[in-house]
Amino acid sequence: MVRRQIAPCWFLPAGARDAKEMVVVIRTVVNPDGRVREAKIDASGFQMANPFYRAMAESALRAVKNPECQPFKLPLEKYNEWQVMVLTFRPGEML
Question: Does the predicted TM-score (pTM) go above 0.85?
Answer without folding.
Answer: yes
